[in-house]
Each structure stands twice: as C-alpha cells, then as structure tokens.
Amino acid sequence: MKRVLAFDFGASSGRAIIASYDGDKITLEEVHRFSNDPVMLNGTLYWDALRLFFEIKQGIIKAKLAGGFDSIGVDTWGVDFGLIDEKGCLVENPVHYRDARTKGIIEEAEKLISKKEMYDITGIQFMEFNTAFQLLSIKRSRPELFDRAAKLLFMPDLFSYFLTGKTVAEYSIATTSQLVEASTGKWSQRMCEALGVPARLLPEIVMPGATVGMLSDAICEELGVPAVPVIAVCGHDTQSAVSAVPAAEKDFVFISSGTWSLFGTEVDAPIINDETRAFNVTNEGGFDGAIAFLKNICGLWLIQESRRQWRREGKEYSFAELETLAKQAEPFRCFIDPDATDFVQPGDMPGRVREFCRRTGQYVPETVGGVIRCIYESLAMKYRHTFAGIQNCTGKKYERIYVVGGGTKDKFLLGMTADACGVTVSAGPVEATVMGNVAAQFIAAGVLKDIPDARAAVSRSCAPELFAPGDAAAWDEAYPRFTEIL
Questions:
Q1: What is the DSSP letter of 459?
Q2: Distances (CA, A) of 463 to 126, 243, 246, 403
Q3: What angle do CA 111, 112, 117 make, to 5 degrees?
Q4: How distant is the alpha carbon of residue 49 from its chain centre?
Q5: Rounded distance, CA 26 to CA 136, Å?
Q6: Share in percent of the chain as helix, strand, coil (round to 5)
Q7: Residue 414 neighbours by CB under 8 Å, 6+ apart
Q8: Band of the pLDDT at 449, cuts 50, 70, 90?
Q9: CB 31 within 8 A of CB 62
Q10: Domains of the chain (ranges plus CATH)?
Q11: Does position 85 have pLDDT exceeding 90, yes or no?
C-alpha cells in the first residue's frame, strides 16, 4: 500500500499528513501541526520561511517514525514567493501578500500596460497583491533585489527546492502570478517587459504530477530517511482543493472555503472576454491543464481578524460564541462588500466594518453580534452575487454548490449560503486541500488513474453533509440593498 506525505500550508497554520489508499478509500493521519505566524519587522510583513522549513523537517521525522512514506507533496497559499541568489540562498524572507507595499500599485501598472491587455493575456482577476504587482513594487522601490536574485520560486516551489535543490514553477501556482499566458501556459514576455520583471528569474513551468526531484543527500542524511521523490502537486492550495471536490457530474460549482472563499467552476479552456473582465473573474490552471474559472472572495479572514482585534482589546470569544451572538442579532440590518480594499490589511476589522457601514449610509452595528451577523450575511450575499455571475459567464445552470475546506465546519454560514443562493449546499470534505495534494501523488504513482478517479475515491472516503435552501423571501428582499454597496 502506497503511503504519501502531504504538507499543507494555510495562512495561519500548516500540517504534515500521511495518506494511504486501500483501493476504495483514502485515509489521512495527521503527524504534525504547527502555526504559521507572519512577522512584522521595520514596517514590512514577512513570512518566516526558515521556521516553516524547520517544521517541514519535523514533519518528515514524525512521518518516518509513523511508518514511513513513498513521496512528498507541498501546497501553500498563492502569489507569494522567495528570491534565491546564485548560491541558492534566500535573498530575504518572503513578504506577505497582505503587506502594504502593493497598495495602489494596480493604478501604477496601468500606466505601463492597460488592464484590458493584462486580462486578455493572463485571464487573471485583478488583486493588488498578485505576484506581478508585488514584482512591480520591488522594481519601483528595491530594484537591487533583482540584481542579487537568480531565481524566483513560489512558496511551494521554494520548499520543494529546499528539499531537492531543483528549481521549477508548478503550473497552478505559476498562474496565480498574473505573468502566465492563459492561451499557452507559458510565461508572458509582454507582461514581463511591461512591468520590468527580469525573465531570467522565472523557472521552467512543470505540470502537476511531475517529479520535482529526489530528496537531497543532505536532507536524507540529516533526517535519517531514504531518498523519495518530491512531487509537484497542485501547489496552489485552491487547485488542490478543486481536485478533491467530490462531484460526479462534469459541470459543477464549488466554494473552497477558509480564510479566502474561492467560488467557481472547472472549464476546459480559459474564458476571457469583456464580460469576464468586467466581472473580474480568474482563470487559474489546474491538474491536466484544466482551468478553474473562479472568483477570489475575502472569506473567513473577516471573522478571524475581528476575533484577533477583540482579543487585543482583552475580550476572548470562541468561534462558537461569535456564532451564537450573531444568531441573536437582528438580520439584514447592514452589509459590507467583503472584497473592498478596507478589509485587505490586518487591523481593527470591527472598526472597519462600522466605518464601511457609516460611509455607505447604513445602520452601524455596535455590538459584537451585530458585526459578525453583518459579515456572515455579506459573505452569503457575495456568494449569491458570484453564483449568478458564474452562471452568466458560462451560460450554464448549476443545481448544487459543493463547499470544501475548513469553512465546512461553519454550519451557520453553510445554511445562509443555501438560503441566499437558493440551491442545495453539499459540504465536505474538510481536508479537501490535503485530499487533492495526496491524490496528485497517488496519480503520479499510478495508484489512482486520473482526477475523476480521485474525486470518486474522495467521495467514498468522506460523506458530505447537505444543506437544503429554506425560505428565500427575506434574502430576495434584502439582496438589492446589498448590490447597492458593491
């Protein structure tokens, strides 16, 4: 029986999980969990990449002690990267996508290349922290970093490099950069030239399922493990999650729910036209060249950061307590646009919610429950708005929404999603990203045939929970008020 080791990094934590497949179901065993804590230093927000690699080593040791493994795969969040020099050393710690260095940078980019041309080339949603704009920020304020750098490696590729010494760019994570041509899957010379990105920094793009390399001799000796292949799974955690959506039908919609909510569908080819550009929807690469046609929505970050703010004020609330307080608050009093730039950076999220409501002439929630209720209902309304947009862009109707990821634990939001969108919500698996990661490794090993085979195995392994839509009248009545603030 094949046993594979998945490293799954989220915005606040990481895990090392061993998976096995018995020909029917996939079984997961968590062997190591650790926090992922950004560090603010001299006004810049960094990822602590060396600490995270230390945790990868601990995960490998614990996996060895738990019975060993036959391959390794790493997935992380998108867009962020590390620069390495000619000697293979990090130039500096990778900067967090929520750092303020890219504030207003899209307007600067438009002076160099139009948004229409950028979208026509890449098909990627405009978000100011996309890799292309982070690199433009470096070009403007710290160009000496490019002189010192030999290669740019996205976060999963950086960790794979630390393990193998091989430099590649896995396809799914590369497409999040807004530097890849949607039509060819290759780096865009036009984007690089327009934004001043040295093309020499960009490594070879490899497809999910490829072998990056073997564990290096140094790692094997240090950790006392045999050399095993490191597989280029879908390095962007969203695309790993999409690979594990337990849908039997070809046409389906999903929400990969966590810190972010990624709402979309899978299509055979990019959809790039005036309508999709106006809707600001993305075309990200996935397994076997599939395209995830999706919208990035600020998700449970709003709840998480609100909770952190109250903690800073000396008020400790569990997520269950916040949900209870939200249920007690009066519904449909006010809304925010979850994707407004007000909510990108860390800070006083409840205060920003109140300020948004004040600025848009709405009721201002003063209680904890009122703020959380506003966030929950705004997310559900944004899902409804996005659901309609996806159907409009694809010309297809969908009768069910598959929700996967950590957000499937939030039954309050799942019920609201079914009510707001008017369709059944199928929730699970919670560990979709890990399931997609290990599925890619099993496919690479010949244990699973392809992604449909993997999705069937995931479906057999994790029974979904269904949420039927309730009375939609109140949501229908409130929805026009929500659209007014977008």
A1: H
A2: 36, 17, 9, 13
A3: 105
A4: 18
A5: 43
A6: 45, 20, 35
A7: 403, 407, 408, 425, 427, 465, 467
A8: very high
A9: yes
A10: 3-237 (3.30.420.40), 245-428+449-486 (3.30.420.40)
A11: yes
Is the confidence at residue 361, as pLDDT, over 90? Answer: yes
* Sequence letter at residue 336: I
* Alpha-carbon span 61 to 222, nearest angstrom: 10
Q: Is the pLDDT of residue 471 over 90?
A: no
CA nearest neighbour of 153 among 55, 76, 215: 76
Please report where in the chains the tokens 């209680």 appear, as a residue: 367
4: helix, strand or coil = strand
d(CA 16, CA 276): 37
Taking the chain, what is the end-to-end CA distance rounded to the nearest angstrom? 52
At 349 the pLDDT is: 98
Q: What is the pLDDT of residue 1?
A: 86
Q: What residues have CB less than 8 Å from 299, skipping those under 6 apart?
A: 257, 258, 259, 260, 261, 338, 379, 407
Phi-psi map region of 34: left, alpha, beta (phi>0 left; psi -120 to 50 alpha):
beta
SS3 450: coil
Q: Scanning the structure block, which residue is given the tokens 């750092």?
A: 99
Q: What is the 3-class SS of 143-167, one letter each residue?
A: CHHHHHCCEEEEHHHHHHHHHHCCC
Task: Outline where 266-367 has alpha helix (H).
Answer: 274-279, 301-312, 319-328, 349-359
Q: What is the pTM of this model?
A: 0.95
| Residue tagged 């890849």 (tokens) | 180
Catalytically active residues, by annotation: 237
Closest CA to 398 of 413, 383, 382, 387: 387
Angle between helix axes 432-444 and 451-461 (nearest 10 degrees) is 130
Tell me the two tokens of residue 426.
């199928």
